[in-house]
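Retry 2 of 3 after timeout on previous attempt. Resubmitting structure tokens to design endpoint.
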């Protein structure tokens, strides 16, 4: 696979992380740098890890995981999307916000399921995995931060409406996972 194709793949895979980080950027008033970096580390880390997980044992697991990948993404994004919509009228305190380890792991998994499939594709194309996995991780890290701070900038318009919008975006990603 060419470097240009891998670069395009990396940007495409990072879009889910950008959208999720955007919705989180809307919600958080405190510790914004910390929260942005946590989201970026987990989304970028999982995006870099998942292609390797898909790459190496392709012949062993693809028949078991891939049939459920879309369902897993659908369930996680639906949960997060409805949570954002339901909580849109609540004042979120930093201590009660869903940015704990469990949520970060769920977000990392949900935004990187496609990267697992990309690893399988890279394996089938005969492309070595190290450089593409690192590129995917770095681009996702950057785009996650961009999404978070874009959400921060737009939050001044109407936090409740933007929170609902962010929830709707997550639900659209969930639906996209099962339709496409």
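Retry 2 succeeded. Sequence:
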């Amino acid at each position: 696979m060419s470097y240009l194709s891998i670069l395009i793949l990396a940007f495409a895979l990072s879009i889910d992380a950008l959208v999720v980080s955007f919705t989180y950027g809307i919600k958080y008033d405190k510790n914004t740098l910390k929260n942005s970096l946590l989201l970026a580390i987990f989304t970028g880390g999982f995006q870099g890890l998942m292609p390797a997980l898909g790459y190496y044992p392709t012949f062993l697991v693809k028949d078991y995981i891939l049939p459920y990948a879309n369902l897993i993404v659908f369930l996680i994004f639906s949960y997060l999307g409805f949570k954002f919509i339901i909580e849109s009228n609540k004042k979120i305190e930093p201590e009660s916000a869903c940015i704990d380890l469990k949520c970060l792991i769920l977000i990392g998994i949900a935004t990187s399921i496609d990267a697992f499939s990309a690893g399988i594709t890279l394996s089938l194309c005969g492309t070595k995995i190290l450089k593409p996995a690192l590129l995917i991780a770095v681009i996702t890290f950057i785009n996650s931060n961009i999404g978070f701070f874009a959400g921060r900038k737009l939050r001044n318009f109407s936090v409740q409406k933007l929170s609902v919008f962010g929830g709707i975006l997550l639900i659209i990603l969930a639906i996209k996972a099962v339709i496409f």
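Attempt log closed. DSSP finds six helices and no strands in the chain.
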